[in-house]
Amino acid sequence: MTPPNRIQWLRDLVSLEIVLWDRMNTRLKEGHHLSLAFFESLYFIGRSPGGSVRVGDLARALRITVGATSKLVDRIEAAGLIRRELDADDRRASRVALTEVGRQMLADACPTYEAEMASVLDTTLTADEQQQLHTLVKRLLTAADKGEAL
Questions:
Q1: Long-range contacts of 16-22 (CB under 8 A, 24+ apart)
Q2: Can you give the pTM of this predicted structure?
Q3: From 63, 85, 89, 109, which residue has the greatest number of CB atoms within 10 Å?
Q4: Where are the domains of the chain?
Q5: Which fold is adopted by the domain 6-145?
């Protein structure tokens, strides 16, 4: 089997990401007054061991620069959804953790996120196809993180 046109393949993948981002961002803003960027940050922080992360770790998780992450953290903190804490391991650094309001916002928004993704995926892909697609995307991301092939 011949591989697909790689230029079109990437274009399609980027287009899908944009469509999904816009759709999810709209749904979260309508239902919770929460942007997808805020949601993703809250989600990563909330799932982190100990419930807090360094800004650099959040930047790596979001795959954006530390500077952009710092600005994002400032906005999320101003909204009262996270708080800064001293890093017990490095007194020069700080960590961010969810506030109770942030924890509740995340808990309220997760079912909306899940339902919206289900409405996109379940109407087009079987459960096995969804799992296969997720496995392939994770494999490509892992290779990229290791500096392999990407």
A1: 20/120
A2: 0.88
A3: 109
A4: 6-145
A5: Arc Repressor Mutant, subunit A (1.10.10)
User: 141 is written with which tokens?
Assistant: 């991301």
Output the CA torsion sign for 129, 142, 72, 15: negative
Identify any residues that bridge with 96 across adjacent strands, giving them in sequence order.
Answer: 53, 84
Tens-place pLDDT, residues 38-87: 999 999 999 998 889 999 999 999 999 999 999 999 999 999 999 999 88
d(CA 119, CA 145): 30
From residue 55, how far is each of 39, 70, 101, 118 by CA, in Å? 16, 7, 20, 31
Instruction: Check: CB of residue 72 under 8 Å from CB of residue 41.
Output: yes
DSSP H helices, the chain, are 6-32, 36-47, 55-62, 66-78, 100-121, 127-145
34 phi and psi angles, rounded to 5 deg:
-130, 125
Query: Residue 31: how many CB atoms within 10 A of its CB?
Result: 15
Cβ contacts of 29-35, under 8 Å, gap ≥ 24 = 31/109, 31/112, 32/105, 32/108, 32/109, 32/112, 34/105, 34/109
